[in-house]
Amino acid sequence: MIDMSAILVIFGGTGDLTHRKLMPALYNMLLDGIVPEHFRVVSIGRRDKTVDEYRNEIRASIDRYSRNKVDENIWSKLCGMISYYRFDFRDFEGYPKLKAYLDNLDKEADTKGNRIYYMAVAPEYFETIVHGLHIAGMARQEGSWSRLVIEKPFGKDLKTARHLNQKLLEVFDEKSIYRIDHYLGKEMIQNIMVLRFTNSIFESIWNNKFIDNIQISLTEKLGVGTRGNYYENSGAMRDMVQSHIMQILSLVAMEPPVNLKTDSIRTEKLKVLEAIEDITPEFLRENVVFGQYGRGFIDGVPVVGYREEANIPKDSNTETFVALKLHINNFRWAGTPFYIRTGKRLGTYGAEIVIQFKDLPNILYFSDGHIQEPNLLVIRIQPNVGVFFQFNTKDFTSHHGIVPTKMDTSYENPSQGNTPEAYERLIYDILRGDSTLFSRWDEVEASWTIADRIIKYREQGNVKFPNYDAGSMGPVRSFELLARDGRKWWNI
Ligand code: BG6
C-alpha cells in the first residue's frame, strides 16, 4: 500500500490557479473518494485574512468551477482540511516557523511528515521558495517524503531552465520534482499510448510506410485577456510549443516502451525530441510561420488586435500563432512530416491530432479523376473527446460512387479546456508518487533546445505583424506551408 498521507502546502494560496483549478480538483477528488484519510491543505498567502474568510472564498470558487455541484457534507469535510497561513515567502526567517506549524499539524492529522510543496506562484519566486525550504530543513526529512510541484513556464529559455533546474536539484532530487504540463492530465493525451499500443490495426501501420503526415493543432478562440504581461514575454512558442505540443508530439511518435514504468516511458519520449531534424535558420526559412492577430470577429463579436490588448506594447512583435513543419529522423518516421500549429484568436477552438494515411494507387477506383479521400484517424482532445476515423465505402444511393464514411466515437465533454479535471489526475499522481505524467528534466531540456532555435530565428526575422485577422485560421502562409507539399490542414 502506498502511503498517501500528506500535507499539501500551496504557495500562492490566494492566487488564480488555487481558486480555479487546485481547490475544485481537490473537492472532486474527495467526492470520488481518492483523497487520503490523513490529509491537510495549508494555503500560504501574504494577505491578512482569517481561516474562515479564506474558506468562504474557496467555497465560492468551488461553487463556480467544480464539475460537480457542491455537496454540503463533502464540502464540510474539505473545509475542515484547509487552513490559511499568512506568510511572506520572501522572508527567510518565516520558514522555520512554517516548519514548526506543519510539524505540529502532523501530530494532529497524522500526516506522517510527508509534504507536497506546490509552487502556484509567479515563476520568479520558485528559486526563493525552494531556498527557504532548504535552509529550514523542510525539503528532506528523515522517514518521510517531500515533493516539489512546479508549474510552467519552466524557465524562459534553455539557459534559465538549466539554472532553475540546478537550483532545484541542489535541494530536491529529480524523482521528487513534479513539473506540471496540464495537457498530460487530459484524458485523450493519456489515451494516445493506449490507442497505439493496444490496437494491432493502428500500431502495425504507425510509421512512414503507411502514414502520409501527422498534424497537431491546438487552436484557441481566446485572446490574451488579462495575461498580457506574461504573454508578451512568452508568445506562442514558449506558451504552447515548448511545453504542450512537444509533449504531444513525443507521445504520438515514440517507440513502445519496454514496460510502463515512468522512466521507460520518459526515455522513449525523449528519443523523439532528440531525433528531430537539426533546426537551422535555413530549415526554418521554409518551414515555420509566425503570426500575430489583428482586429476581427470571434463568433460575430468584434475583438481588438493583439497590440491593442491590455499591457501589450503598440509595436509588439510577439507571436500569437505558430505553424511549423518538423521531421523526425529515425527509422519509423523519416520522410513523414509532422505539421503543428497553435494560435490565439482563431476561428475555431479545439485540440486534435490528425493522422493522415497514404493513398492507395488509383488503379481500380478513382482512375476517372475522382478524388480519393484519405483514411484519417483523428484523436480529439477537446472540445470533443474521442476518436474519429474516416474510410471509403460504396455510396449506396448512387450505384457507382465511393464516399468517405465517418466513424466518430467522440462525445462533447461539458468541461473543456484547462480544467480542474486534468489537475485531479495530476494531484492524485503526485500523492501516489507517480511522475509518469510529468516532464523529466531531460525532456524539458530537449524541448527548450528546439524551441530556443525557433525563437531566436523569429527574433532575428522581420515578419510584418499583425498578419492575420482575429477569427480567421491564421496567416495565409500557414496554408501555403502545406499546400506546397500538396497537403492541407484538416479541420474535423
Ligand atoms: C496554458 C497556456 O498552458 O494552456 C494558455 O498558458 C492556454 O495560454 C492554455 O490558453 C490552453 O490550455 P487548454 O487546456 O485550455 O487547452
Q: Could you describe the 3D structure shown?
A:
The chain has about 500 residues and is α/β, with parallel strands linked by helices. The protein has 2 domains: about 150 residues, Rossmann fold (3-Layer(aba) Sandwich), CATH 3.40.50.720; about 300 residues, Dihydrodipicolinate Reductase, domain 2. The protein has 15 helices and 18 strands. The strands form 3 sheets. Strands 7, 8, 11, 12, 13, 14, 15, 16 and 17 form a 9-stranded mixed β-sheet that branches. The chain has a 6-stranded parallel β-sheet with strand order 3-2-1-4-5-6. A 3-stranded mixed β-sheet has the order 10-9-18, with no helix packed on it. The longest helix has 20 residues. The chain starts with 5 loop residues before the first strand and ends in a 9-residue tail after the last helix. Bound molecules: 6-O-phosphono-beta-D-glucopyranose (BG6). The site of 6-O-phosphono-beta-D-glucopyranose (BG6) has 5 residues, from loops. The site of 6-O-phosphono-beta-D-glucopyranose has 5 residues, from loops.
What's the helix and strand layout?
Blueprint: E1 6-11, H1 16-31, E2 39-45, H2 51-65, H3 72-81, E3 82-86, H4 94-109, E4 115-119, H5 126-135, E5 146-150, H6 158-169, E6 177-179, H7 187-197, H8 200-203, E7 211-219, H9 228-232, H10 235-253, H11 262-274, H12 281-287, E8 288-291, E9 293-298, E10 301-303, E11 321-326, E12 338-343, E13 350-357, E14 376-382, E15 384-394, E16 402-408, E17 411-412, H13 420-432, H14 441-460, E18 468-470, H15 476-483
Parallel strand pairs: 1-2, 1-4, 2-3, 4-5, 5-6, 7-12, 9-18
Antiparallel strand pairs: 7-13, 8-11, 9-10, 11-12, 13-14, 14-15, 15-16, 15-17
Bound molecules: 6-O-phosphono-beta-D-glucopyranose.
Residues 220, 239, 351, 417-418 line the site of 6-O-phosphono-beta-D-glucopyranose.
